[in-house]
Amino acid sequence: MKEPNIPKNETERLHELDSYKIIGELESADYDFLTHMAAEICGTKISLISLITEDKQWFLSHHGVNARETPKEFAFCGHAINTPNELFLIEDATKDERFFDNPLVTGEPKVIFYAGMSLVNENGFPLGTLCIIDDKPKKLTKNQIDSLKMLSNQVMKLLDLRRKTLVLDEQNTKLKKITELFKESQRTNHVGAWELDLETGQTLWTEEVYAIYEVSDDFDPNKDKAINYYHPEDRHIILNAIEETIKTGEPYDVICRFISAKNNLKWVRSSGRVWEEKDKATKLIGIFQDITERKNTEDQLRISEEAFRGNFEHGAIGMALLDEKGRWLKVNKKLCQILGYSDKEFIDLTFQDITHPEDKASDLFLLRELIQGKRDNYTLEKRYFHKNGQIVYIILAVSMVKNDEGKLLYFVSQIIDITALKQTELQLANILSNTQAILDANTQVAIIGTNLEGTINLFNKGAEQMLGYSAVELINKQNPKILYIEEEVRASALELSNELGEKIEGLDVFVAKAKKGIPETKEWTYKRKDGTTLPILLSITAIKHEGNITGFLGVAVDITETKKSEKETQDLLEIAKSQNDRLKNFAYIVSHNLRSHSGGISSLIELIESEFPTFSQTEIFEYLRKSSINLTETIKHLTEVVQINLSNKEKSISTYLHPVLESNINSLMTQAKKANITIVNEVDTTTMVKAIPAYLDSIVMNFMTNAIKYSSTERDSYLKIISEKSNDYIILKFVDNGLGINLEKHGEKLFGMYKTFHNHADSRGIGLFITKNQIDAMNGKIEVESEINVGTTFKIYLEYEKN
Predict the structure, then answer these.
(1) I want to staple 191 with a disulfide (CB 3.0 to 4.6 A). Which of 289, 571, 627, 658 is the partner?
(2) Going by DSSP bridges, is the β-strand pair 717-725/677-681 parallel, antiparallel, or unpaired?
(3) Region 512-525: what's the mean pLDDT?
(4) CA atoms of 699 and 691, how far apart (whole Å)
(5) The CA-based dihedral angle spanning residues 496, 500, 506, 511, taken in that order and rounded to the nearest 10 degrees
(6) Helices and strands per DSSP (H, E), number in the chain
(7) What is the DSSP string of 318-329?
(8) Helices 693-709 and 619-646, interaxial angle, to 10°?
(9) Which residues pair with 539 in a beta bridge?
(10) Are 282 and 276 within 8 A, CB to CB?
(11) Given this model, what pLDDT does residue 639 score?
C-alpha cells in the first residue's frame, strides 16, 4: 500500500478548508441529494463527498456506507486531490500496486472500483472529492464522467455559498454590533442623526433625536414642528443656518437654546450639510446633540476659573503657574511679597534659579515622578532665596494641569512662608538640645521626670550613674517608688497627712506639696539597683503647660559626703568649744594674774620715782615707766578680747593708727636699739581705721617684733611703717630690709600654725597665724612680698569709716 502524497501547498489548502467551518457539521439534504444522484448516474453502490483534513478524510455526505470518516493514509481521495483538474479513476484496485493491499480494498467496504473528482474552490485549492465506489471492477461512460464533473461543481457551489453565508452572517453580526454601539454612543453622548428631504419636507430622526425633543416615537417630525421647539430668541439662528447651507452648500454648525416637549430648557448643537443624489441636492443630513450638561459644565468651569483667578490673585498664600521647564508663567501678589521679586522679574527666572542648592535634587526628583504619572501631586519643605539674598523657608505643594489629550499644560504651585515657624523650630531644637545636653552633663545630679500617673518618662545620665539603672529599664515602665525605702515613704505619708490635714498616699507622698505650689527640699534615702542605699537631697517641681500640671520633675543630689562632713564638722565644733572654753579660762587666769603683777610693777615704779628722783629723770627710767603703762594696756586689751569672745557682737571702732604705732615703738625701743634697727613711723596722724583695738595692737606689735627679730646683722637695719588709702581699705605697710622669706618654698604655709622660716631661738610659728586670723576677724586681708637677704613688705588691708 502506498500512502497519498502531501500537496506542496498543504498548509494553505488546510487553511482554505478551515474557512468553510464545515468539518463535523450535521448532514445536509442538499449534499445527500448530490451523492444520491452520483450513485444513480454511475450505477455504483457507494457515493461520497469527502473532505481531506490534516489526518483523516471526513464524509460531508455518505451514500451506501455508514462510516463518517477514515484515516487519511487509507484514503483514495488523498491521492485524487494531487490531480485536482482530472478525474482520478481506479477500475480495479486489486490490480493497482498502490491499493491492492489497502485495508479498504481487502476488507469492508471492498473498494474495487473508485472514481473521484476533486472539489476545487475559487482560489484553486482542492478541498476533497465527490467520489463513487463499487465492490467490483467497472468502467464509466463519457456521459457518466461529465455528469460526475457537473455534480462535483455543484457541490463546490454549495460549499462556496456556505462560506459566503458565513461571511455575511459575520458581517451582519458586526453591523448589528456597530449599530448598537452607534445607538449607545448616541444615547451616551446625547447625539441623534436626522435627515430632511428638501423636495417633500419629510424628516427622519434617530431614536436619540426623539429623546432630546422628549416626544414619543409616533411624533410626526415635519419641518415646521421641529423648528418651533427652538427658543424663540434663538430660532432665527437655526433658520438662517439651514437657509445658508441650502443656498451655498457649505455645512453649518450652531449652538442654540431649545425648549423640549416637557418644557425643559436645553442647550443643543445642530449641524448639517447637503446630501447630493444624481448630482442634485436632494437632502440635508446632520446631527442633533443635547449639550446642556457640557454647557452647564462650561459655565461652572468659567465660574470656577473666575473664582480661581480671584483666589490666585488675592490668595493669602503664594501661588504660581510654571511650564514644564520650571519657568514662571504667572505669579500672585503674595508670592512677590514672600520672595521680593516683581511679577515681571519672575518671568525671567526658573524655580531652580531661586532654590537653595541643597534642595534642588529632591524637588526635581518629585517633579519628574509627577510628570511620569507616578504621583498626582507632591508636597515638599524647601528653601528659596529672597531677592535680598536671605533664605526663605517654605512649604511647597505642586500639582499639574493637562489637556484632554493628557499633555501637560502647566504646573500649579502653592507656597506657604514658614520662615518664622522654622526659626522658632530651630530655636526650640537648640533649647531642647541644650536642655538635653545639660541633663546629660549633670552626671552628679539625678534628674527624674514622671507623668501625672507617676510613670517615669525622664531618667538622665546622672540618675543612671547614681542608681545603677539604665534609662531604658525604667522609662515608661516603672514608678519612682522603686527607688525609695518603704518605711520612709510610710513615715512621710503620715507626716504629710498631719501637716496638710488630708490623707496623703501613693504618688502624692512625693508631689502633694508640688501640686499646691509649695516648694520643698527634703532628705530621702535612695535604693540602688544592687540594693545598697545612699542619702539624697530631693527637690520636686510641678511641670506645667498653659497653667495645667502635666508631670513632675525631681532633682536629687547625693549628700553622702555632706553627711560625712556634717559629722566631722560637728565633732570639730565640739572640740573647738572645749578648747575655746579652756582658752577663755586661760585668758581669765592670765588677765587676772598679769593685772596683779602689773599693779605691783606700777607701784614699784611710783616708789622708785619718789625715793630716787634723780634716777626717775633718766632715759632708762622713762622707758621703764612707758613699758609698765604698755603692760597695763596689754592686760586691758586681753580683758577686752575675753569680753569679745563672750559677746556675739564685734567691737570694731574707728581708731587712729599713729598713736598705736608710737606706743608699740616705745615699748620695743630697747629691743630695737639692741638689734641695731631703726623704726620709722610715716603714717599720717589723721589716718583712722575700723578695728578691734586689742587686735590692732597685737598686729602692730607682732610685725614690729618680727622685723626686730629677723633683722640682718650685715647692714644697718630699718623698719618703715607707711599707709596708703584705696576705695575700700587703708593699706598699712611694714617694710624692712631684714633676712627675707623664701616665698617659693614657704608661700603656701606662711600663715600656718607653728610654721617657722628661720633658725631663730625665739621662733614659735604662732605669730603670723594669730595675726592673719585677727585681720580676717576685722574683715581685712594681708599680702606679703619678700626676697631672701633683701627684705620683706607686709601689706595690711583695714576697713575705714567712709564719709
Answers:
(1) 289
(2) parallel
(3) 86
(4) 11
(5) -90
(6) 26, 28
(7) EEEEE-TT-BEE
(8) 130
(9) 521, 555
(10) yes
(11) 58
Cα separation values, 138 from 49, 80, 179, Å: 20, 18, 59
Radius of gyration of the CA atoms of the chain, in A: 66
Query: Following DSSP, what letter does each residue of 217-236 receive, concatenated?
Result: TT----HHHHHTTB-TTTHH
CA contacts within 13 A on the Cβ side of 63: 26
Contact (CB, 8 A) for 203 and 195:
yes
Nine cell digits for residue 615:
634716777
**Single-letter amino acid code for the residue at 304:** S
Amino acid at site 579: Q
DSSP string, 243-260: HHHHHH---EEEEEEEE-
Q: Which amino acid is at 752?
A: G
**At which residue does the C-alpha cell 452648500 appear?**
249
Find out whether the peptide bond into 109 is cis, omega within 30 degrees of 0.
Answer: yes
529 by Cβ neighbours in 10 Å (0-12 / 13-18 / 19+) ranks as middle
Task: Determine the angle formed by the axes of helices 508-515 and 486-500, rounding to 10 degrees.
Answer: 30
470 CA to centre of own chain: 28
- Over residues 128-163, the pLDDT tens digits come to 999 999 999 999 999 999 999 999 999 999 998 888
Query: What's the order of all strands across the beta sheet hosting 56-63?
Result: 69-71, 56-63, 46-52, 126-134, 113-120, 87-90
Interior angle at CA 144, CA 61 and CA 20, nearest 5: 30
d(CA 400, CA 89): 81
Cell of 173: 453580526
Task: Work out the end-to-end distance of the chain between its first and last CA atoms, rounded to an integer number of angstroms.
Answer: 155
Measure the CA–CA gap between 267 and 260, rounded to whole angstroms.
10
CB 54 within 8 A of CB 14: yes
Cβ–Cβ < 8 Å for 20, 106 = no
Alpha-carbon distances, residue 508 vs 58, 453, 585, 781 (angstroms): 103, 10, 55, 52
Say how far residue 630 (Cα) sits from the centre of its chain. Answer: 88
Please report, as a single letter, which amino acid is at residue 644.
I
User: d(Cα 49, Cα 59) in Å, to the nearest integer?
Assistant: 6
Position 677: which residue type?
A: I
pLDDT digits (tens, 9 = 90+) for 630-659: 777 666 655 555 544 444 345 789 999 999
